[in-house]
Predict the structure.
Amino acid sequence: MADRDGSPIGPAPGAAALLHRLARSALAALITLWLLVTLCFLLLHAAPGGPFDSEKAAPPAVQAQLAQRYRLDLSLGRQYLAYLGDVARGDLGPSFQYPDFTVNELIARSLPVSAGLGGLALLLALLLGVPMGVLAAAREGGALDRTLMLLGAAAQALPKFVIAPLLILLFAVELHWLPAGGWVAADWRYRVLPVVALMLPNLAWCARLTRSSMSEALASDWLRAARARGYGEARLLLVHALPAAALPLAAWLSPALIAVITGSAVVEQIFGIPGVGRYFVQGALNRDYTLVLGVVLVAGALVILVNGAVDALRGWLDPRLRATAG
């Protein structure tokens, strides 16, 4: 079909390709989430024990009411189909262990807490790690370079469940500077230790990756040519080498954000923070099927969104990736 001057009517080829990629990505995301929920559903029901084992001493009538309320009297297949139907309507179901709340309500009030802590930790890791990596690359082989990389290796080697108790022991028990745990939303002191525990491994990765990328850029032929033109070291580092190191950093953002999402469960449990990670741990221990499934579904959706956003950022930084995706 064409307009009066003979030009075709319809979406441009570039727009059509973009719509095709978006539809393909959306379909892949839905299939991934469905497989994730299905696997988690089967594993939860295959595990020994149930959400109301402690109620076995209750009268049979009470047990029957609980089973009917939470559909536990249905066959496994019917429970699965009923849950998928609820999810398709945006309903993650009632919580087994928190009967006064739905899973939607629990996630809605805990997700901002986890997102705030994780986002701040990653932002600080970038703000501190990039300058550290630039300084180490500028002084490659020197004392500063060796010191920063040694500290980075130590932070990478220590897992969060080791870092968090050490921080509590030092700053809460010994120095009495900060609270050891708990949560008061209006008091910034309760955020410091959890954010530091989440930040340190990411800070180490960011600094070491920046240093490696900057060193590679500084050793390139095109940067030697820029130095031969008489450009100052500050311009060489910030204007020429640092943008070249941005693409590896963008690629690192995806696993870093995912690590913050998944690693928050350990940190929130240790510090007693009412975030999504802590609800996930408590739900798994108490066989709260709907709560665990809801957290897994939300975390999976966040991972997919993060990967999509990082891929878009990398495509913006490097047009060659856009050409390949097209």
User: Anything to note?
Assistant: The chain has a mean pLDDT of 80.
